[in-house]
Amino acid sequence: MRMAQEGRNIDEQVVVGEQKGSVEWAILKRTRQLNTTASEEVLKLAEDLETWEKDDKTKLIVTQSAGDDVQMFYDGQFSSLNDIYTMYWLCYHIHTYKKTQVAIVDGICNFGSASLMFAMKFSVVTEKIDFATLEASLGFHTDCGFSYIHSRLPGHLGEFLALTGTRLNGKELVAVGMATHFVPSAKLVDLVARLWSLDSGDMDVVRSTIEEFSEKVELDKDSILNKLSIIDKCCSKESVKQIIQEFEAEGSKEGNEWVTPIMGFLKQSSPTGLKINLRSIREGRKQTLAECLKKEFRVSVNILRGTISNDAYEGARALTIDKDNRPGWNPATLDEVDDEKINLVFLPLEDDIIELRIPETEDNRLNGKELVAVGMATHFVPLDKVWALMPRLARLDSGDTDVVRSTIEEFSEKVDLDEDSILNKQSIIDACFSKESVKQIIQAFEAEGSKEGNEWITPILKRLKESSPTALKINLRSIREARNQTLGDCLKKEFRITVNIMRSTISIDAFEGVRALTIAKDNCPRWNPATLDEVDDEKIKLVFKPLEDDLELRIPETEENRWEGKAETSGFASVRG
């Protein structure tokens, strides 16, 4: 597949890497175009980040400056698929990176590159930064994780930014949580020097270092963030058309002159792009990071294929190539955009092999090789061989175990664990989890995490400390009891625990977790009890006791003569008690 950058001077697109001690420094530099992230830069940064993550000597990664290259979509037409795939993989990698990263942004930062910078653990911005999501004006969509980022902003600010292309300055980015620190440009030289001198990737050390140079954020009087009540009122409407009508009504009121340029942007943007953006941001509220990226990749591919419109190419032509600022959108109006056709860009790709492949979860995940190594899966088959295996299995006229096994083994590969696999840390894991209580396990991990080369423990401790203390104690007991239980015993016990948890026998943490992580999505669960010391071990026993109303799980003690009864006859219908 031809790269979209073919014919350009590759020397203009570079990632300048520099290393000092345990600090790696990546400068995304572009000499003749505005701070852009083009294909060579994306690939080089992806390779470097993977290398640094596996290097025990590297403790801190600092990335400076970035941008995006809209023209690569226009030049390469659909041939830029490889670039897009790499960009999405890189976005996910940065969001879930195991080591401490600092992004320093001191200029214009738009499009996909902004997601690379704001996804890092620390994002330092200055008074010179100029950020906006302008994709709707190009007939494109807020991609590279921004349906995840924007959907988690206060109120309906995410929809507003995606639809109107409104710019945010450094102070505003910190105020809404997209950046972590505001440092005046004049202090960057000193900050850089201090970061260079660090020999630590410890989050607290890096944070305190940045805070030496950062300033408290106070919004300007005319900041757009002071208009959130109006923004929420307008952008909460169901459709783009209704949002525009509401802004028109607000703009007619005295003192609301700030609405005029917003209306201009909305009316000049691609009608198709506006509808796609609104749907994507709103779907993002109910999606994980991985789900958002998979959806966005799918939408990007369908847009660049011209599945329902060629507006993305027309926008790039009019605004960045010919610069006549006269895009000929097709359809030309919101009323002409068929909502059923909008559905098409969100559908799974027919050639499933090019769907984005990233993990479903972000924490302590096991990859395919690791699942086979621990016996949770039987065979490891590389993705490019799966598509040959599937028709072979479909053609089998046998359910014989040996026949099926031998067929799969033709395509499977021997498993060799990666050097940084969590399974290579088994001795430390065993030492920590052999402790009697959850509290002792956490203390053991804290001791191990303070040792050089054990940075992999940081996210584990974070997860332990953020989890429900009650749930941690229940899980530890349940897993340890299971060692002496049959499958039937385990399932009966787990059913009993589930019913007691859903009945809030000792705590409402299950409902609070759902509220904080999937409904309100404030990621601030209020556990009760709030600490391990406050959790009464005697109360933990209550969720393991037989149910008073004999609502026990009825399963056979052996696999033969399985019970064929219906769930409702066992009393299951009364689970809500």
UniProtKB/TrEMBL annotation:
Record-linked InterPro entries: ClpP/crotonase-like_dom_sf, ECH_dom, HIBYL-CoA-H
Catalytic activity line of the entry: 3-hydroxy-2-methylpropanoyl-CoA + H2O = 3-hydroxy-2-methylpropanoate + CoA + H(+)
Entry keyword set: Hydrolase
Pathway(s): Amino-acid degradation; L-valine degradation
Enzyme superclass (EC): hydrolase
Stretches assigned to the Enoyl-CoA hydratase/isomerase domain: 24-346, 364-544
EC number: 3.1.2.4
Similarity field: Belongs to the enoyl-CoA hydratase/isomerase family.
Function: Hydrolyzes 3-hydroxyisobutyryl-CoA (HIBYL-CoA), a saline catabolite. Has high activity toward isobutyryl-CoA. Could be an isobutyryl-CoA dehydrogenase that functions in valine catabolism.
Name the record gives this protein: 3-hydroxyisobutyryl-CoA hydrolase
Organism: Brassica napus
Organism lineage string: Eukaryota, Viridiplantae, Streptophyta, Embryophyta, Tracheophyta
